[in-house]
Amino acid sequence: MPINRTAPTDEELAWQETALCAQTGPDFFFPDPGASTREAKRLCAACEGREACLEYALTHDERFGVWGGLSEKERYALRRQER
Predict the structure, then answer these.
(1) Does the keyword Iron-sulfur apply (predicted)?
(2) Ramachandran bin of 38, using left for φ above 0, alpha for ψ from -120 to 50, beta for the remaining angles
(3) Where do the domains of the chain lie?
């Protein structure tokens, strides 16, 4: 999947308007190193924007935090599988 280094468009960010993460603080989604991502993943699993969020993270090479229900390591593994 190609990495998009340009600024995201409004259309690419539309999912954020209804995303559950927008209703919580960033602490769940950007935990300290070694902290659990379980709560973030639980919120992501219930979120309608999960797939769009994950697509955004993969397209824009987001390297930190939980995006679309996946941690940094899980997104890295997914990218490697897609090659």
Answers:
(1) yes
(2) alpha
(3) 13-82
